[in-house]
Amino acid sequence: MTEKRKPLVYLAGPEVFLPDAREIGRRKKALCKRYGFEGLFPFDNQVEPGPGMDRVIYRANIAMMEEADCGILNLTPFRGPSADVGSAFELGFLSGLGKPTFGYTNEHRDFLARSLDGLQATRDQRTGEWRDTLDMLVEDYGNADNLMIDSCFAEQGRALIRINTSRPEVFRDLRGFELCLADARKFFGKIKNEVRNASIG
Q: Which of 35, 91, 174, 197 is most buried, most CB within 10 Å of its CB?
């Protein structure tokens, strides 16, 4: 990232599946601008419908993440107790590139509570562990999501932000997104100050 441009933020989340996805993207990018960033939303890519469209979208999103300075990920549970798998992949990809990531979820309950919803699980009286009908362990670490997701943020010194949102707004509520932007602004402000102090010294 150069001093002359705003930091680029890759914007991931299941809102890309909403009928008004482009409007949500527009709102997110406007908030990015307000906080001193430039947002990169997957729908910014111009992809023509046709055979192999999925691979074209994949490559375009990979290119965006490689260009970005950081990522903000909406990890609200999607079609199950855990985050959208595409967004989880993007979190891992950005982290693998060594780029800072910031995340939020519009579900405040622990991963265990959500996993037990509708799941025929029993508690092992000897170990205290929860197990499903296939005798598979049901994860219980008090996390917002799978341990690999929460730990990814914890290792960077931050938490996955949890927001309590009503169901109709669960994929449109941007309060958590703004909190991530505020954290990102502090992070990049600290980096800028460290660079300035190092050049002075």
A: 91
